[in-house]
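Much of our argument rests on the idea that a fold can be written as discrete symbols. This step matters because it turns folding into a mapping between discrete strings. The record that follows shows the chain in one-letter code together with its fold in token form.
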Amino acid sequence: MRRIILSTESGADLPKDLAEKHNVQVVPMHVIMDGQDFLDGSLPVTDIYDYYERTKKIPSTTSTNSHEYHEFFMKKKNDFPDCIIIHIGYTSKASSSFQNAIIACEELDDIFLIDALNVTGGLTAIVMYAVTLLEKEPTIEPVSLVEKIESIVPKSRLAFVPGSLEFLRAGGRVSNLAYLGGALLKIKPRIELMEGNLVSTKKYRGKMDGISEKLMRDYLNQYNIDREQLYLLYSIGIDEGIKERMDKMAKAAGFKNVIWMQAGAMISTHAGPGGFGMAGLED
């Protein structure tokens, strides 16, 4: 039986313990700060917030390049000559990373690339679905496994509220006018992935503790999420009381497993501190 290797990018925010337990390989994306290039995962997220406090600028982010992908794929092929690699990538609509992976494996065999059209928890939900399939059916044909993973991509639902409009403004993602209006009225946007694109689908007014509850209620009313698993996402700075309430709400809604995920450095440069969100797969 040929070995199947699952991989994804650091922008999935896949918790390290899950990656290690299930042997999922994580390819790092990049964070550029103070003129230095850091691999996502190699620096504390707090360094990003400290950098912003010091400079009032947010770091930039870049995708994994084709050379890095080629080195990664070749290393796996050298370590396991008969292996098959299934790479589940960060949405191609928001990063060149997936296109770079395509370029990297043009002359390589037995590598399947799946555009997850999602990020952070939405991407992790798809990766963990693949993990579960492979563990239940270790002899599954790779083509069949890929088809099943691709079929679940449109069913992965991610919704989050960034903790800081200031970070969105500093990164050029909202105008000064929108920022001032949102700050004065305490309005925060709900961000979702629509066909791979990050889209603001609703606006919430108030403090984050109330917003987080509204977000979960709206999310569960809108989507029939499989109760087997729910991924709750947060960025550093969120109030612990919010996390406790969201955990209770999720369990009261019937979710058997609630997995908390912290936004890594790459995602945190976009969401800012104190953000909250959730992801799961529709039934």
The two ends are 31 Å apart (CA to CA). Confidence is low (pLDDT under 50) at residues 171-185. The chain has two domains: 4-32+62-152, 156-281. The chain has eleven helices and 13 strands.
